[in-house]
Amino acid sequence: MLAGCALTQGAEATAGGSTSVAAEAPARGPLVSAANPLAVEAGMKVLARGGSAVDAAVAIQAVLGLVEPQSSGLGGGAFMMVYDANTAALAVYDGRETAPASATPELFYENGRPLPFVDAVLSGHSTGAPGAVPMLALAQKQHGALPWSELFGDAERLAEDGFVVSPRLAGMINSAAPQARTRWATEYFTKSDGTRYVAGDVLKNPAYAETVRRLAREGAAGLQTGPLAEAIAAAVAEGPRPGGLTTSDIAAYKPVVREAVCGPYKIYVVCVPPPPSSGASILQLLAMGERTPDLDKGAQSPEAWAAFGQLQRLMYADRDRYFGDPAFVSVPVAGLLDPTYVAGRAALAPALRGAAPFGTPPGAPQVGGDATREPAGTSHFVVVDAKGNAVSMTTTVESLFGSGRMAGGFFLNNQMTDFSMTPTASDGAPAANAVAAGKRPRSSMSPVIVLDREGRLVGAMGSPGGSSILAYNAKALIATLGWGLPVQEAFDLPNLVAKGEGFGADTEGFSQEMRAGMAARGVVLRSNTSENSGLHGALWRNGRWDGGADSRREGVARTR
């Protein structure tokens, strides 16, 4: 129905229930919304030179990996949604890391038992073959307008001359997080006087400057082969607990181009990546929301927020059970979005007390329970160029500073800890997200692109947040497309994350009256303990961009 986008069963978008944000004039850039002003500036410069949205994404990622290394980088992975304005086609670029060829289901076992999670993160076992750079190289080859070699100038200059450490980065540098205290991080973040960098200091990274020069010259091969690949493998092979990632694993990595999964919400079509991303879970929640009248009562309604929390519980129960790498497990995406199944799940929400049970959608495989943990450390950005091509990209090194190990001036991912720590349930059934050689771990990264019913670009958005990404993206979509709020106001609404037994929230963001009204409906709030949101994005409204950058981060949204 939409070129390059699989519209789910029963998903014909219908009018009504929401005010349209589309306009007669087609959506055009420039637009960049990202988590650091230096990265936004780099992207805007590329667009000003006639670069495409994907060209700008390369420059943005190169700068983010330097100035926001706690969240993403050249040693990590990503999912990128690309909208082609000429063909109205959507493509998904899967740059999720892959497990080494030596990986086994017991990758994080020691003496017959799973390692403590922090020990697993800090180990060499936690690093998979990096995917962000190969993914960007493939996307830029197919959608670029400028030479690849011309996209790294800002990153090189900032690394060579230094950049001002932001308050958020300074907080991470001086935190008690063990990844910030490894020998690599300590060497990088310690000044000549023996103290750590603080906000306002100028931090230089000549090794990173040399890395981006190499990438500019050699493309993805500059990371996947030669000195950089050797440095990555050497860092992984160091103790404690050396890992098995080899230069062969790094060289063998290949990004995957996938078809987007799309579904209706109000008068729009919402598109997300397919598995191993969990984006289809957001579509499931929105579909359940269409069958939940309380959700339409708006941001000032305790009934709406309570309904949102209960629907999340149902969504997460299914996501945690079934999602994994589709090359290894059958993920019942069509069944989870089947209208009859969705209606049945939505009907459970009002009476839910405690954790929701997982359902059995059509086509569901026999899989066991999951023991996956998803820590903080991710970023999201959106780009639209002058022709109306768009990028929505979520990018990560997984945890804060990844594994805490470095090569070439950048941090290495700990993405393998996004697999289930135990490969089977107590009854012996295999977990859908168990470790396997060459496998991509399940991801909550879910970059969103929104279209109208004719397949025209309406907007794009997304967030970091570990497993809470699904809740944050859903909140933003409901608040903007369903409740009609301005994008910035929607992003800055308090967060509510309902997974399992409890309801984590920005409790102080809800009034006492709102909290009491939610509690009367079985939704008792506690403080949110997961990574907070970092929503970035925009919607095309009345012939201009209504952009936003989550006030919980340091980003901006710019159109000039």
Name the features.
560 residues; alpha+beta; 7-stranded mixed β-sheet; 7-stranded antiparallel β-sheet
Description:
By secondary structure, the chain is of the alpha+beta class. The chain has 18 helices and 23 strands. The strands form six sheets. The protein has a seven-stranded mixed beta sheet with strand order 1-10-11-16-17-21-22. It has a seven-stranded antiparallel beta sheet with strand order 9-4-3-13-12-2-23, with helices on one face. A three-stranded mixed beta sheet has the order 18-19-20. A hairpin with a 4-residue loop joins strand 3 (77-84) and strand 4 (89-95).
Q: What is the straight-line distance between the termini? A: 34 Å
Low-confidence stretches: 8-20
Strand content: 15-25%
Helix share bin:
25-40%
Counting copies of identical and different chains, the oligomeric state is single chain
Mean pLDDT: 94
Strand numbers in spatial order across the main sheet: 1-10-11-16-17-21-22
The number of helical segments is 18
Number of beta-strand segments: 23
Biggest sheet statistics: 7 strands, mixed
Shape descriptor reads globular
Radius of gyration: 22 Å
Secondary-structure blueprint of this entry?
Blueprint (H helix, E strand, L loop, with lengths): L4 E3 L23 E4 L2 H12 L4 H15 L9 E8 L4 E7 L13 E2 L2 E2 L2 H6 L9 H12 L9 H9 L1 E2 L2 H7 L9 H7 L12 E2 L2 H13 L2 H4 L1 H12 L9 H6 L3 E3 L1 E6 L2 E5 L6 H12 L11 H21 L10 H4 L2 H10 L29 E7 L5 E7 L9 E2 L2 E2 L36 E4 L5 E6 L6 H14 L4 H6 L3 E4 L2 E4 L6 H8 L5 E3 L8 E6 L2 E6 L6 E3 L2
Parallel strand pairs: 1-10, 19-20
Antiparallel strand pairs: 2-12, 2-23, 3-4, 3-13, 4-9, 5-6, 7-8, 10-11, 11-16, 12-13, 14-15, 16-17, 17-21, 18-19, 21-22
Helix pairs in contact: 1-2, 2-4, 2-5, 5-8, 12-13, 12-15, 12-16, 13-18
